[in-house]
Structures are given as structure tokens and as C-alpha cells.
């Protein structure tokens, strides 16, 4: 699993007890996962369908640096399933784990459409994957 995005825990990320607010972390994960899915499926129209049990293993506090890891575990016909782990970058202690995040590949009308992918790709996407996002 590659840990791409890092976050530095700031006062606005805390709950009233002074540790990282779970809702804030879930919002970061949802964004991290959708970016991963967009890249893997080469399609900007991807939505969150299902998130399995979330295990908040340990807390994070102000000043901690955390990192988020996502990896694809299954390519369905229109869906992609991923696993997520968040850990403290310095101590490597696990903060959260989610076994299954399922995202669905959509067409421009919002209907599920086969993505045709079967395995993780590491290649960088080109702008050709996103014709309607090109400038000019
Ligand atoms: C995403 C959406 C278009 C899918 O519609 P749908 O009628 O469920 O579509 P399907 O039944 O064809 O399922 C699509 C894929 O999701 C998978 N899926 C559906 N329900 C699932 C569930 N509960 N758990 C895991 N996977 C599921 C299906 O297996 C299928 O994958 P596959 O093609 O790889 O086999 C629709 O559910 C939707 O618009 N949901 C809201 C999405 C959203 O707004 N997300 C943001 C929430 S804040």
C-alpha cells in the first residue's frame, strides 16, 4: 500500500476533547479514495457507493503528522473496491482502517457504466483521459 497524502493535524481538525475529529478524517479519506478511483478508472465521474466498518484504532492529536494509504483490492464491472489505512507518519501507529470502500464508475448522465479495468495501473494519466476538461 502506498501512503500518498499527508496531513498535519491543526486546531480546526480537533473534536471538543482535543483529539482528531473522526468526521474530518472520513472526509479526507473519501477525497483520497475518489482521487485514487478517478486515476485508476481514468474517469472523473466516480461516486462513493459503500463504506464498510470503520475501525478507529488509535487517536491523533494536534501537531501529529498522519498519512493515508489506499489500495485497490477488487475491480468489478462498474465498481472498484479499495482498502484504506491511516497511520501516524512518525510512529507508524495505525489510526484507522477500513476494509472496503466501493466506488462506482458513472457515465455523464450518472448511470453505472463498465470501466474495463482489471488491475492497478501505476502509469500517469494524460489529459486525453479527460477530453471535456481540456482548456481552449
Ligand atoms: C452509484 C449508483 C448510481 C449505483 O446505482 P445502483 O443502482 O446501485 O447500481 P448497480 O446495482 O448497477 O451497482 C453498481 C455497482 O455497485 C455495486 N454495489 C451496489 N450496491 C453495493 C453495496 N451495497 N455494497 C457494495 N457494492 C455495491 C454493484 O455490485 C455494482 O458493481 P459491479 O458492476 O462492479 O458489480 C447509485 O447507488 C447512486 O447514485 N448512489 C449515490 C452515490 C452518491 O451520491 N455518493 C456520494 C454519497 S455522499
Structure commentary:
- This is Acyl-CoA thioesterase.
- Belongs to the acyl coenzyme A hydrolase family.
- Residues 1-109 form the HotDog ACOT-type domain.
- Pfam families: 4HBT.
- One of its GO terms (molecular function) is long-chain fatty acyl-CoA hydrolase activity.
- The protein is built from one helix and six strands, in the order βαβββββ.
- The protein is of the alpha+beta class and 136 residues long.
- The protein has one domain (2-108): Thiol Ester Dehydrase, Chain A (Roll).
- Strands 1, 2, 3, 4, 5 and 6 form a six-stranded antiparallel sheet that branches.
- A hairpin with a 5-residue loop joins strand 5 (79-88) and strand 6.
- The longest helix has 20 residues, at 22-41.
- The chain starts with a strand and ends in a 31-residue tail after the last strand.
- Coenzyme A (COA) binds next to strand 2 and strand 6.
- Coenzyme A binds at residues 47-50, 76-79, 102, 104, 112.
